[in-house]
Amino acid sequence: MWLALGALCALAACSSRDEILQGDREALGLSSFDVAEIENRAVPFAASAPTANAQWTHPGGSALHRIGNAAFSATPVQVWSSNIGAGEGRRQRITALPVVADGRIFTADADGIVTATNTAGAELWRKNLTPSLERAGQGGSHGLAYGGSALYVNSGFGEVAALDPATGDILWSQDIDAQGGGSPTYFDGRVYVASRDSVGWAINAETGRVDWQLSGTPSASGYQSAAGPAVTSDLVIFPFASGELQAVFRLGGLQRWNATILGGRDGAAYAQISDLAADPVVAGNRIFAANPAGRLVALDLGTGSRLWTARIGALETPVVAGGSVFLVSDQNALTRVDANTGEVIWSRQLALYKEDRDRRRKTVFAQRGPVLAGGRLWLASSDGALKAFDPANGALLQELPIQSGAATAPVVAGGTMYVVSRRGQLIAFR
Question: Which residues are CB-neighbours of 261 under 8 A, at least 6 positions away?
């Protein structure tokens, strides 16, 4: 009897039709994580006068990770390209942004080989910093900074080195017992490094000796392209993989304040990583920091008190200028935020997935930047383009090709913009 009744129930289920629910179908992807709708507005943007900067010594241009409006042509063209070594592959990435000083552009390829190129595109020297018992590429790319007449390299093999910028000769090398991760920061005779095991280092720039160090909260995971410290006249702000920011007095390492940036997008696997991939930016008496998981914050520089929080993440260093914060969000949207309130002014969606079909959406385009140059926002993308946008409303103004796509954000010095491609080419636009 029960068997017959079960058969009748099965037949009834097979004969009934599924009810088709009314309404729009939304993909379970990154685009569905934002609840609030953004109403884009065109708000006038008053950029500062273009700065004819001859150097670009750190990510963002300076030890503050901020340089302002760099002088640059409104109608640039590519003037040369030069090979810097190994391009990106399945296991290797180019994570070091170029730095420019004294007529030289310094780069690091996917194998960690450091190269100096002059402003005409000719190679000056090449230096392999791979330890004798290791293979090139195993430690990843390096982080670079310039200051005090030396080039400083934060190695993926756990060493910080100072190189002679004219010859590439090693002046000194210091073991920091962990992968270096992000770029070092030079200021007034010291090099500051945040290692991947959440230790902050202050190293004498002349001798390579450790002046002091401090410990942060450790984390079991992090990004390869990690953030580097921001340095002011009296403070060093160390970003750690745990999402922690530590502000300490620059001379002795005594802690001033501690803050943590946590939280992210519900349903996003990458939101489980607490690392800070974007360099913190100092502007006046505020510091702006973002994690890749969906949080942007403004903190009081003196006390670490949180002034506001926006539900936007970033993997690249933001631009702070003209009362606004510009960044590429964790959803690949170029976004302008009010620096005083955290309110989104406009957001322009950029290329996201490399595949249009839902089942093949495994890889996203990398958007590198932005930088503010010539009164425009410039982005370099792995989709093969260098793009300029209007800061007032986010409109696309110009697009130039980058063969094989960009591996780094643009940097600007001496009226020339430099980008490293995924094939390991240093490209100059002027």
Answer: 243, 245, 276, 289, 290, 291, 295, 297
24: three-class secondary structure by DSSP: coil
Does 391 score more than 60 pLDDT?
yes
On whether the CB atoms of residues 419 and 406 are closer than 8 A, the answer is: yes
State mean pLDDT over 398-424.
Answer: 97
Give the model's pLDDT for residue 2.
42
Q: How confident is the model at residue 196 (pLDDT cuts 50, 70, 90)?
A: confident
Residue 275 to residues 218, 239, 268, 421, 428, Cα–Cα distance (Å): 10, 9, 15, 25, 32
Question: Prior bond to 370 cis, omega within 30?
Answer: yes
Q: Give the count of beta carbons closer than 10 Å to the beta carbon of residue 245.
A: 25
**DSSP label of 59:** G
Beta strand pairing status for 159-163 and 150-154?
A: antiparallel
Tell me whether strands 333-338 and 78-83 are parallel, antiparallel or unpaired.
unpaired
pLDDT attached to residue 137:
66
**Are 92 and 111 in contact, with CB atoms under 8 Å apart?**
yes
Q: How far apart are CA 105 and CA 110, in angstroms?
A: 17
Alpha-carbon span 388 to 372, nearest angstrom: 9
Q: What is the mean pLDDT of residues 147-154?
A: 96
Tokens of 219: 């984390």
Place of tokens 């609030």: 36
344-349/367-373 β-pairing: unpaired
How much is the pTM?
A: 0.88
